[in-house]
From TrEMBL, chain A:
Annotated GO CC locations: EMC complex
Gene (name only): EMC2
A Pfam short name: TPR_EMC2
Annotated organism of origin: Myripristis murdjan
Designated name of the protein: ER membrane protein complex subunit 2
Record domain EMC2 TPR-like: where: 90-199
Quaternary structure (record): Component of the ER membrane protein complex (EMC).
Homology family: Belongs to the EMC2 family.
UniProt repeat feature TPR, residue ranges: 155-188
InterPro entries on file: EMC2-like, TPR-like_helical_dom_sf, TPR_EMC2, TPR_rpt
Record function comment: Part of the endoplasmic reticulum membrane protein complex (EMC) that enables the energy-independent insertion into endoplasmic reticulum membranes of newly synthesized membrane proteins.
Automatic annotation (TrEMBL), chain B:
Membership in a protein family: Belongs to the EMC3 family.
Subunit structure: Component of the ER membrane protein complex (EMC).
Gene Ontology CC terms: EMC complex
Source species: Myripristis murdjan
Protein's gene: LOC115362297
The name this protein goes by in its record: ER membrane protein complex subunit 3
Amino acid sequence: MASVSELYDVGWEEMRDKLRKWREDNCRNSEQIVDVGEELISEHGSKLGDDIWIIYEQVMIAALDCSRDDLALTCLQELRKQFPDSHRVKRLSGMRLEALERYDEANKHYDAILQDDPTNTAARKRKISILKAQGKSAEAIRELNEYLEQFVGDQEAWHELSELYINEHDYGKAAFCLEELMMTNPHNHLYCEQYAEVKYTQGGLENLELSRKYFAQALRLNNRNMRALFGLYMLAGRGTKENKCSVKAVEEMLESMQITMS
Amino acid sequence: MALLLDSSIRMWVVLPIVFITFFVGIIRHYVTQLLHSDKKVDLEQVSDSQVLLRSRILRENGKYIPRQSFAMRKHYFNNAETGFFKKVKRKVIPKNPMTDTSMLTDMMKGNLTNVLPMILIGGWINWAFSGFVITKVPFPLTLRFKPMLQRGIELLSLDASWVSSASWYFLNVFGLRSMYSLILGQDNAADQSRIMQDQMTGAAMAMPPDPNKAFKSEWEALEIVEHKWALENVEEELMSRDLNFGTFFSQDIKSTMF
């Protein structure tokens, strides 16, 4: 199998920079990270200096995603050797246990971290995701609610809660979570669009009106958002009064479909 | 008035003072890092600060959510009986600097690492390099500065712009600040002027020890906020312009790694 550097003709610095970019953008392209990271660690480990630790962490999480337990274990062992008492490393070993479906042991790990440091948010969130992985969504929702009562500002958690509620078809509460997200990120078109979709699903005249407004807002923030355009089109179609909005939306939709097909 | 200074002054006084200041600053930075003790964070404090943040966000960005949701949240915070800011009273233990051990040690450490070296080295330079002028500051100064800047030189007719070594030392302390941020990165402990600034503003903002007051002020601020929905006319605004699809779909998106 040809190595990444041969396939794409890149040096180790570019691979390292690419990993950093993925880290900063929070991408979840685990297979690519494993390919690039594994080669970087094995061939160019000594040249990386202190960067290697964070790359170990990044590659380990990606390896867990791809079921590469061997690679995950090596990374974890290196990190454990270097940072023996670190909560961050403990969390990673907990994650590995989760990946192996040894949930009870993982829970013990996280409880140990929380006893030491009650404000550690990462351990709490992992416990909630264990519940989610085990399919206990009602408990996961309850735990997440308690978590959010204390850490009201955690946006990742609000988003996760909205997803859990949508899965349970509790659209009212999901809308509440998305409103929190919209308040903290008023210029993020994705949250507006998700909120509009939830309102659309809820149904009822008031919610549909709200939904139309938020689809329009999402489009105003980013006119490439196809889902928002489609949502607007769907709503415009069922409007009881003929207004400029519906006609124009239909026109725009047809225009965009023409462009994508050409 | 033009004075010609011995060039050995430049070599043996000006440059050594610069180096001394610089290295003492770096040493101070590392010593502070070594002596630095981790601050233990209280869960309640974290929680409170986040709640206050949420309330502030509600005030600022409340106009992006529907009127009813805004009213619901405002009610949650401000309701006369069950509102969060009305109901929650935190027990406040006033932190007496004399008896609170952690704050006392912090203060001592701060003094030790910053003020003490400055006094010592300032005094040593004053003693070692006294009796002659070092340099001339490029702007004219009044006679009032003479006793301050020309320690050890009793010449009545000398221009106030000619300064002695002690003032050159102080000039360095403040001037090398940007050098430190270049070399040690932002937020470094060698930055004395920032520390002095902190000491002055620290008296003004004593918020963490008193969440009750913060809650009260946040309650007042939230009471007066009105909800002006930003999405009132969004559809008309959207329709008034073209969506401009133009060049969006003309190229393939590259999906390879590099």
